[in-house]
Hints:
Number of strands: 6
Shape: globular
Strand content: 25-35%
Oligomer: single chain
Strand order of the largest sheet: 1-2
Radius of gyration: 12 Å
Number of helices: 1
Order of helices and strands: EEEEEEH
Largest sheet: 2 strands, antiparallel
Distance between the termini: 40 Å
Amino acid sequence: MLMSPGGRPAKLHYLANQFRVLVPGDHVVCAKSGVRIPLDSLRYWSVSRQEPYATAELATEAGA
Length: 64
């Protein structure tokens, strides 16, 4: 039986138009707000800082 990664944070490598899962999980944590972001809802991140953001506004504030 396969174990589900549910409830665990994923570790990702952020690329220009996509991300690569390094460690399986179901979410990441926003670098600015601390909000959990489900992987299927993740839309904003910084390639140079390797950080995820919950909203476009937070990404802009961070200088992503």
